[in-house]
Design brief:
195 residues, alpha/beta, globular
């Protein structure tokens, strides 16, 4: 293990994600190999949120740091992962997601400008059902109206701390609230939030 602190910590909240996690980690590995810095500059923190299916064992076997958060709430898991993370840049992704091979390079480029305080990479559906199609259609309208997006949400550690992280009182849509809060804060600071 390297003695250097990672540049970017990817935080993955996980509750019973033993089946989904390997697919995400496969894509993280590819993106890490393509990262312009060095692959060891990426730290993956899997936040075990009281899983009962050995999610933690899968994560450890793949070389991830595992943090256990006892409160069953995704916002608490995201915050617990951020607290344990060592990177100066924080990124959050759901365990049942996949990331693009250029994700880490894109995050680094966006934040290096000094004009961006954070953003989200967008999502692409792997499967489609009527429910997912309706949700996606509503999400596209929301993204278009607000300029906010989903996917891998990223920001600097200092900016995350400045807003107090995710609202742990919210049981759902904590990520939407976080994005909105960051967008307002970013405009005040004369820097923007990119989607």
């Amino acid at each position: 293990m390297s003695s250097h602190a990672p540049r970017l910590s990817l935080i993955v909240p996980a509750y019973n994600e033993r089946e989904s996690l390997p697919r995400l980690l496969d894509t993280v590995e590819v993106a890490g190999e393509r990262y312009q810095g060095r692959p060891e500059a990426i730290e993956v923190v899997v936040v075990d949120n009281l899983s009962t299916d050995r999610t933690d064992e899968v994560a450890r076997a793949r070389g991830c740091r595992v943090v256990r958060v006892e409160r069953r709430a995704i916002a608490a898991a995201r915050n617990g992962g951020a607290h344990a993370a060592r990177g100066e840049l924080l990124a959050f992704v759901d365990a049942d997601s996949r990331i693009h091979p250029e994700t880490f390079n894109a995050i680094d480029r966006a934040l290096a400008t000094g004009r961006v305080i954070g953003g989200a990479t967008g999502v692409k559906l792997e499967r489609l059902s009527l429910g997912l199609a309706v949700t996606y259609a509503l999400m596209v309208a929301f993204v278009w109206m607000t300029g906010l997006d989903a996917g891998v949400v990223f920001c600097r550690r200092d900016d995350f701390a400045a807003v107090g992280g995710y609202n742990e009182e919210r049981l759902y849509a904590e990520d939407v609230e976080f994005l909105i809060q960051r967008g307002v804060s970013g405009r005040r600071a004369d820097r923007s939030w990119c989607g």
